[in-house]
Write a structure and sequence with these properties.
By secondary structure, this protein is α+β, with helices and mostly antiparallel strands. The protein has a single domain, classed as Fe-S cluster assembly (FSCA) (GMP Synthetase, Chain A, domain 3), CATH 3.30.300.130. The protein contains 3 helices and 3 strands, in the order H-E-E-H-E-H. It has a 3-stranded mixed β-sheet with strand order 1-2-3, covered by helices on one side. The longest helix has 10 residues. The protein starts with about 35 loop residues before the first helix and ends with a helix.
């Protein structure tokens, strides 16, 4: 995958890939790359214990960066700085992504910019949580 390629898929939250920041943080992304699809699939197994929607659909993932060496870096946020799951969610993401056969190491960082808002949720999350 080219270093500057970004993912775009309708209804998914915006995520820069391979470290490329998106000019518009609300731009749609695509998961056409099979490696990224597998990483997203692993991320989608992680749920905030208090919310019945996975963290991908909630729009908590801001960046996915992976290298041919198998190293993956992910920037994620939380719905609130006071989130009671703040200590466990990054580790849950690391474990889920590291379980993929091509991943050597996964590092997840919590970021606060841009701040999370319900606008970052996918349509799936909005329907599940009654945001329409």
């Amino acid at each position: 995958m080219p270093e500057d390629a970004a993912l775009t898929a309708p209804g998914d939250p915006p995520v820069p890939v391979t470290g490329t920041a998106l000019a518009d943080p609300n731009a749609p992304i695509s998961a056409s790359d099979p490696t990224t699809q597998r990483i997203i699939g692993a991320i989608k197994t992680v749920y905030d214990p208090e919310i019945p929607v996975d963290i991908w659909e909630l729009g908590l993932i801001y960046r996915i960066d992976y290298a041919d060496s198998g190293d993956v870096e992910i920037d994620m946020t939380l719905t609130s700085p006071m989130c009671p799951s703040a200590q466990e969610l990054p580790g849950m993401v690391e474990v889920a992504v590291a379980s993929l056969d091509f991943v050597r190491d996964c590092l997840v960082a919590i970021v606060w910019e841009p701040p999370w808002t319900p606008d970052r949720m996918s349509e799936v999350a909005r329907l599940e949580l009654g945001f329409f």
